[in-house]
Design brief:
The chain is 21% helix and 31% strand. By secondary structure, it is an alpha+beta fold.
């Protein structure tokens, strides 16, 4: 592994932001009663929401309905802004598997008031993250299976080929608004099958044959 790859592999330690894409799988948008967006829908998580294996997922204060959402994460290896789609792969340093934990009741309450829902997506432990997956090990990031199980029962079983907006489109679009920096993470959306967890549940998730991870809900 090159020195550059080693550095990018430590993205959790030094990355400055997590840029997330909502409603990027049609079936997921439908299951929540949301329209499919005409352009990527973006929101942010703070890097303080990262959670490494061995640590529990915690309910944020006031939350009674906590949902899992399994996602492919794209790790930025070379910074840039206004990145053309044709150059996006040059800026990707690798990948990771993530859970976009969502306080659904807090999110729904904020939506009804027309308020931002940052605390529903960015609370402490809201981004369980896998180990780094090297770019070279993934021949086609647009054809990766990703799944999530709760207590051994499969709840999500999707494939990145079903993204509405593909990775080059997403990275290019995001970079028009936010300068992407080395170590940043882009979460690319979740397939259908999201749902609630309760204290004591064990979440396991996988990305093709590249990585698996497991977390317990406290």
């Amino acid at each position: 592994m090159s020195s550059v790859a080693k550095s990018v592999a430590r993205f959790v330690e030094y990355g400055k932001k997590i840029v997330c894409v909502g409603r990027n799988y049609a079936e997921h948008a439908a299951e929540l009663g949301n329209a499919v967006p005409s352009e990527p829908m973006l929101f942010l998580k703070p890097t303080s929401s990262y959670l490494l294996q061995g640590n529990p997922i915690k309910f944020p204060p006031g939350c009674k309905e906590l949902h899992y959402e399994v996602e492919l994460g794209v790790v930025i290896g070379k910074g840039g802004s206004d990145i053309p789609e044709s150059a996006v792969m040059e800026h990707i340093g690798g990948y990771a598997l993530a859970l976009d934990m969502t306080a659904r009741d807090l999110q729904d309450a904020a939506k009804k008031k027309g308020h931002p829902w940052s605390k529903a997506k960015g609370f402490n432990t809201a981004c369980p993250i896998s180990t780094f997956v090297s770019k070279d090990s993934v021949s086609d990031p647009q054809n990766l299976s990703l799944w999530c199980k709760v207590n051994g029962v499969t709840k999500q079983d999707g494939n990145t080929k079903d993204m509405i907006f593909k990775i080059p489109t997403l990275i290019s679009y995001i970079s028009k608004y936010f300068t992407l920096e080395e170590g940043d993470l882009v979460l690319t959306g979740t397939p259908s099958g999201v749902g609630p967890v309760v204290s004591g549940d064990v979440l396991t998730a996988g990305l093709g044959d590249h990585v698996e991870m497991s977390f317990t809900v406290k």
